[in-house]
Every structure is written in C-alpha cells, then in structure tokens.
Amino acid sequence: MGRERSAGSGLETELAKHTGIEIHGNSLRITFMWRRRRCRETLGLPVTKANIRHAAQLRAAILHEIKLGTFDYARHFPDSKHAGNYSTPRDERLGTLLERYKPLKAVDITEETERRYGWALNICIDLLGKDRLASVLLPEDIQTLRVQLIEDRATSTVNHYLATVAGFLRWCESNGYCRAGLAEACNRFEMSDREPDPLTRAEVEALLTVGCLHPADHAAVTLAIYTGLRPGEICALAREDIDLEVGLIHVQRAITGKGTFKLPKTGKPRTVMLFPPALEACRTLLAIPSKVPRHQITVQLTRHETRIDTVTPLLSPTLQARKTHINPWFVPTAWNTKWNTIQKRAKIRPRRPYQSRHTYACWCLTARGNLAFIAKQMGHKDYTMLVEVYARWMDDESPNELQHIWRGMQNEAQKAPNLPHTFKTDRVTP
Hints:
Pfam families: Arm-DNA-bind_2, Phage_integrase. By secondary structure, this protein is of the alpha+beta class. Helix content is 49%, strand content 10%. It has a four-stranded mixed sheet. Strands 1-2-3 form a three-stranded antiparallel sheet, covered by helices on one side. The protein has a three-stranded antiparallel sheet with strand order 4-5-8.
C-alpha cells in the first residue's frame, strides 16, 4: 500500500514539472495551442516517469515547430480524428508554392523581369522560411520580413522586394493557401524625394573637352545630354535609327544588363527631335567606320512575341577595345564604367549616367519649353512626372512668368481685335 502511494506521489511530482502533460484514463495526453485552438492528443502511452518525460519532449518539439511555422499536424498525429481539420489539402510549404507560382507568373513578363522577380522572391521566401506552411503565416511575419530586408539594403530595393512578394501572397490568398491580409502587410517604406542632380554647363564643357579623348566619346556624351535618352536606350541605338535629313532619332529598343533587347521603358517606340548639338553628334558617329557588320538582333516585345531587327550598333565597345572577342553592343553597366572614367578625367563631381537625362529635362524646363513636348521627347506617358520631379526647375522662372504670360495675351489680343479692351493694355500692374 505504501509503495503504491509512493509511486503515485512520484508520478504526480513528475507531472508537476511539465506543463501541458496530463493523464487521460490510463494514458498520457498532451495539450497545446495551434491556430488559436486548444488541441488535445492522447499518446497511448502508459503513465510512467519515462513516458511523462518523453511526452514533455514531444510537446516541446511541437511548440518549436509551431513557432517556426513548420508544424505538420498529420505528420505527428496521423491517426488523429483532428488531423483532417488542422491539416487541410491547402496546407502547402512556401518553397513548394513558390516553385508553382514562378512559371505561372512568368508567362506575363519578359525574361529579364522574370529574373529580377525570381531573385527578389527567393530572398524573401528564404527569410520567411521555405519549409513554413503558408497557412500559418501572420501579418507579424511580414512585418518581421520588412525589418530584416531594410537592415542592409537600399529602400528602393526593399520596396521592389515587398511589391514582388505581395504579388506572390495575393496569389496564395486567392487560392486558399494562406489567410487574407498578408499582401496588405507588405507596406512599402517611404522614400525621401531625390531631386535630380543635373550637370552644369561648365561641367558638361569639362566632360566634352577634358574627359572625352575619342571623338566617339565626345559625340556619345553630347547625344546623351541633348536627347535625354535613358542609358539602355543610348546603348541600343543603331545607325539605322538616325534620320539626318529630318533631324530625328527613332528610339525603338533598349538593351538590358544581360545584353538582351526589349522595348523602351513605356513599352512603345518614340521619335526624338534633335537639337543642333545632338544632330552634329549623330553626324560624327555615322562618319566613323563601324567595326561591326549589320546583323540581326531579337527584340522581346512580350513574353511570347519578338521582333527581328537587322541593324548596326551606333555605339560599340569594339571601336576602342583592345580585346578581340567583345560584345558588339554596350550594355548599361559598360556604359556606366565609361561614363565614370570620363567624369574622373574631367575632375567633376561624380554622378550616375542617368543624370544626363535629368540634365536634358532641367535645361529644357529652365528654357521654358512646352511641357507636353518635353514629356513626349523623354518618353513619358504625360507631363505629370515632369511636374512632380522637376518642379524646382520650373519654379526658377516663376518671377518672370507673369510678364511672359501677359506678353502672350497681348499677342493674341492683336490677332483678335474683338477681345476686351483691357487685353490691349501695354502695362500690367504687379
């Protein structure tokens, strides 16, 4: 009798050491919270000290998996009547879903975009955990992801990653793999407005006279500054795109960092009218004998459509290269290297090549050019971006704008005498 009491007392003492372990009939049972529900599972183990410790270790392992988001109810309790309720056919791991999502997304985007999307998705899913079940993700997990991403990455990069993973999560939500609201948790970080940093005319002069040692470089830099073309568009220009008689450039393609060709950023070709310096630069470039024969290139229009252009590069690394085997076309990274070399030689403050585009826009605006015309030249859908990005340069002329408008109104009044007499006044009161 005393031994039975001692044994019972020993079991009670052992049970008291472990939370979530209890006796159910003649067996041990563990309890834990899973998806905000209290779960109880009988283990079928007799009540002994060793089994109590085993049950405690099992429960600790389950809690750890729940915390990591890798807990699979059916794997631990395959015979449980609750396994079907807690582990539905929609329970899929993030890594598996990602591999399923990628080819479905790829049909709507170009190969270059697919590469960038894939890189961003891989990084985000690695941080979230490939083996985690999508169904257990919480908004808190996405918030943690944001913190991890911003620790050592640029804000613009992080925002690209968050936008990409938000698309993946929306797909998961629409197919019932995860709870609603996760995509909305991918809030982008606010970015301070980066004002354009255009070159001054003195800096441009230094670039052209000191930085550029070869006539082709002098012409290329002039063309970039006086056309506002994007670096990828500059590098993809062909001799066949230039119309010297009319003074036009037909911007029909851009080149990627991988050396593949695509449509310009807006997805549509455009025509750029040339200022005299740009026209002279085109004459110089066309007068230089090309080391690259006319050949065919493939321009990717959409994921499923391409166009074959038979063209000759306007700018080519082969012109000054010492190597025998070299890409006949500049890619943006190679153009960036050349641009940096020219800047160092000119001893001006370093800027990205894209600032040549900003220089063009700012010079046009301070010269009080027509907004619609400038936007069309630069390949914008409308002039909204000009107003948002270059407002400071537009405001520079504001003190004289009243007189400028008034002179225009007077000219119109002279053309139409039937306008009110006040429009013919020679002076305007400030």
